[in-house]
Amino acid sequence: MRLQSIENPKNLFIKIAYWFTKRQYGKVMSPLKVIYARKPELLSFAMKIAKFEEKQNSLSPELRLLIKVATATQNSCTFCQDIALAQAVKGKIGKEKFVALIEKDETKMQISMKKSVRF
């Protein structure tokens, strides 16, 4: 039994999150509709984790996104791959490296990139 999406949340915080994600990504993300609309406190917790990750991480933004794409590829999460690719394009990092990583085309990867995403 799958949980149904909540299209019109009652919580103001979640309504703002719906508006923000729709503005940023063109649509409201499914995890927001299914999980966070039911448990808004989880969204604020996830935001705290993301903020901590940004501030406390010494890795370059490019490398962080490459690792996210590598993890998403290993877990077969095309949604996560798409989000990381959109962030790369938005940050003007360039999508070629990410596409090579998703397609597992090692000929297009730099040596440092290969070492960084292998674990």
Task: Give an overview of the whole structure.
The structure is a single chain. The chain is an all-alpha fold. It has two domains: 12-56, no CATH class; 61-117. It has seven helices and no strands. The radius of gyration is 16 Å and the shape is globular.
Q: In terms of topology, how is this protein built?
A:
Blueprint: H1 12-25, H2 30-36, H3 40-56, H4 61-74, H5 78-90, H6 96-102, H7 111-117
Helix pairs in contact: 4-5, 4-6
Q: What's the Cα radius of gyration?
A: 16 Å
Class of secondary structure makeup: mainly alpha
| SS elements, strand count | 0
Q: Look at the structure and give the mean pLDDT.
A: 80
Quick one: biggest sheet? Answer: none
Helix count from the secondary structure assignment: 7
- Portion of residues within helices: 55-70%
Cα distance, first to last residue? 35 Å
Quaternary structure: single chain
Compressed to H and E, one letter per element, the order equals HHHHHHH
Number of separate domains:
2
Global outline: globular
Sheet-strand content, in percent, reads: under 5%
